[in-house]
Design the sequence.
């Protein structure tokens, strides 16, 4: 058995107090760290940071989360899942404090990076705690609430960020994040520790971690800065070439080290697990939709951050409602149907949002209703995908496997923001409306790609 409880600890079953602490931990990233997507114009007005650097900073949190989430999953298996959750919450407090104090690029970028490290610790550790301390339907219920914290928090982030920025100022977003992290620390206090009995035999793949981080940071830098540097300039090509070399080194050494590598590629021999990770990566790329929509509504139609955030309330309601519906669909039909239907519904919603040629009044109504469809799709997909990833992971590597799954979420979001922003900047000479339209259609296309991945890879199995 992989779970090793503390000596003398009586039998423990996950309860609602622990679940509340887990959900609040998840919200520190998905609700508050992600809310900056809707307040980019407001931050630009009060910070001595260029728009390109600010866009890089927005994606930096998700990027660092993706870079380190797998290693953190291994640490959670080896040193304790409760311990890594606590470390993640402490890092969240530190990162939020730096962002509250930031006036220039260095401190702001550092704060966003630390927020990403925080999420890297929290995501796999809390998923592993759910698998350890919850069983059967209680586990599926706990996963649903965990998903509510991540997907629901992401849906609420635009409205919360806009409301706080309009009424108190955007810096107060991070004060509320600190308060939530402190509450989570109190709620998980006293939870028995768990770890993998076999994980202690494995050492961290330092070389793999460094090459992985270099690869992702350089690739994100190329995508974010390539337009201003010139896509064919010597600097752009050098950064891209270095990223490719780092990627080749990571793959070659990873295959040679086997299960001792940072990412055990043998995990992807399970087609269901591969389908969950890859489709999750692609579907999370559509988070760029929120940023482009916010920019167009605020700069093209002169809405406030609060008014822009209110456009996503339909998304929030439907994603929260559909998460539990997705759980029931999983139990009745298996994962394949909701994991294919969800991305298609999301793609349709984004396609309607891309109709930037509409008049202001009609477009606002269209965006609100399309966000409802957006939420239906993501909520339908979320629980079946997460459950598929967790249940198809080896017991001894559930932390690492959960980390890889959440890496898909984080890197999908980071790359989605970076690519969408670069595409928008590239097409801006065509006009703001056209640039926003084509950038949004790109997001719709990657949602359809997520559905295709599920169709191809996920076995045709029915739930018992």
Sequence:
């Amino acid at each position: 058995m992989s779970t090793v409880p503390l000596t003398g600890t009586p039998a423990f079953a996950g309860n609602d107090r622990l679940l509340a602490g887990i959900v609040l931990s998840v919200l520190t990233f998905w609700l508050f760290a992600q809310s900056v997507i809707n307040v980019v114009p407001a931050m630009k007005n009060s910070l001595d940071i260029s728009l390109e650097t600010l866009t890089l900073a927005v994606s930096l949190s998700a990027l660092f989360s993706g870079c380190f989430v797998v290693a953190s999953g291994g640490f959670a298996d080896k040193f304790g899942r409760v311990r890594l959750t606590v470390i993640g919450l402490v890092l969240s407090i530190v990162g939020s404090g730096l962002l509250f104090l930031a006036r220039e690029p260095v401190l702001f970028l550092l704060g966003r990076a630390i927020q990403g490290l925080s999420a890297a610790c929290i995501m796999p550790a809390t998923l592993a705690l759910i698998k350890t301390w919850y069983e059967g339907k209680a586990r599926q219920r706990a996963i649903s609430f965990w998903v509510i914290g991540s997907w629901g928090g992401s849906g609420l982030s635009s409205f919360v960020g806009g409301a706080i920025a309009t009424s108190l100022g955007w810096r107060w977003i991070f004060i509320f994040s600190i308060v939530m992290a402190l509450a989570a620390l109190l709620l998980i206090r006293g939870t028995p520790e768990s770890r993998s009995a076999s994980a202690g035999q494995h050492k961290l793949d330092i070389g793999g971690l460094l090459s992985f981080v270099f690869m992702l940071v350089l690739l994100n830098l190329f995508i974010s800065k390539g337009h201003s540097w010139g896509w064919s300039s010597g600097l752009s090509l050098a950064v891209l070439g270095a990223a490719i070399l780092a990627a080749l080194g990571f793959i070659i050494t990873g295959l040679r080290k086997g299960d001792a590598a940072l990412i055990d590629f043998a995990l992807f021999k399970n087609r269901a697990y591969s389908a969950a990770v890859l489709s999750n990566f692609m579907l999370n790329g559509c988070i760029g939709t929120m940023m482009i929509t916010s920019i167009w509504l605020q700069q093209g139609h002169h809405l406030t951050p609060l008014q822009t955030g209110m456009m996503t309330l339909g998304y929030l309601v439907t994603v929260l409602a559909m998460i539990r519906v997705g759980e029931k669909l999983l139990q009745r039909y298996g994962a394949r149907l909701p994991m294919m239907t969800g991305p298609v519904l999301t793609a349709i919603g984004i396609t309607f949002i891309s109709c930037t040629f509409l008049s202001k009044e009609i477009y606002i109504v269209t965006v609100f209703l399309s966000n409802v469809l957006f939420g239906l799709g993501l909520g339908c997909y979320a629980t079946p995908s997460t459950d598929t990833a967790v249940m198809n992971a080896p017991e001894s590597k559930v932390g690492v496997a959960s980390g890889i799954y959440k890496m898909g979420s984080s890197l999908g979001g980071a790359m989605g923001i970076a690519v969408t922003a670069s595409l928008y900047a590239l097409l801006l000479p065509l006009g703001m409306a056209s640039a926003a339209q084509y950038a949004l259609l790109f997001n719709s296309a990657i949602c359809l790609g997520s559905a295709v991945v599920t169709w191809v890879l996920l076995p045709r199995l029915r739930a018992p």
User: Anything to note?
Assistant: Residues 136-167 form the longest helix (32 residues).
